[in-house]
Amino acid sequence: MGFRRYALIGLAALGMALGTYKEADAATLRVPSQYPTIQTGINAAVDGDTVLVASGTYQGLITFSRNICLKSESGAETTFLTNTWNSVVDLNQQNSGILEGFTIGGARGGTPAAGISVGTYEKQFCNLTIKNNVIENNNVGIVVGFRSSASIENNKIRNNANKGIEDSGYRSIQITRNIIQNNGTAGISVSSSGDVSGNTIYGHQI
CA 141 to CA 165: how far, in whole Å? Predict the structure, then answer.
């Protein structure tokens, strides 16, 4: 009985140690204090890491190439991502991630000329959680490609020249609790099934 008790204690301690190691294994990479640009931070990250971005304006295409969380330190009001050609944030590899807390705008030229592009080039499954962002002044706010999916929640998507959200895929998409306003031709254009609920949409057609 005593041996069994000590064996159980040992197994529990080992489980706690392994759990602690797994949690500690995820790192926070800070931009710009540790990495000069968002892209260098992403490139240095591994799956499970968080790239934490300080307030400021960051220009250029950001390629989202890891299963990571890309998050602003102080929120969308003070952290801006801009790019004038193609997209601002692009996820086109077979992975998932979280994008949170930025104002994303300026993409007016090229294809797809979107604030956020998810799986529009590669024929692979991509999935991105997009939350607590302001997506404005692009040609299209968010484009989700044919084989990809996204969870789009609690964003402000406004003043984009064409559509607020364009989904051309066949996978399930979640669009919930967003404020979608004054986009050029449509607030939401959805081809796939999923949950489109709790959104406030005005200034155009759904």
Answer: 6
Query: What is the token pair recorded at 81?
Result: 């991502």
Cα 154 to the center of its chain, rounded Å: 12
How does pLDDT run across 125-159, given as a tens digit for each residue?
Answer: 678 899 999 999 999 999 998 778 889 999 999 99
Q: What is the pTM of this model?
A: 0.85
The pLDDT, as a whole number, for residue 24 is 52
Whole-number Å distance between alpha carbons of 204 and 183: 7
- In sequence order, what DSSP letters do the residues of the chain get, joined into one string? -HHHHHHHHHHHHHHHHHHHHHHHHS-EEEETTTSSSHHHHHHH--TT-EEEE-SEEEES-EE--SS-EEEESS-TTTEEEE-SEEEEEEE-SS-EEEEES-EEE---EEEEEEEEEESSSSSS--EEEEES-EEESSSEEEEE-TT-EEEEES-EEE--SSEEEEE--SS-EEEES-EEE--SSEEEEE-S-EEEES-EEESS--
The arithmetic mean of pLDDT across residues 22-51, rounded, is 91
Residue 21 confidence class, pLDDT cut points 50, 70, 90: very low
d(CA 19, CA 187): 44
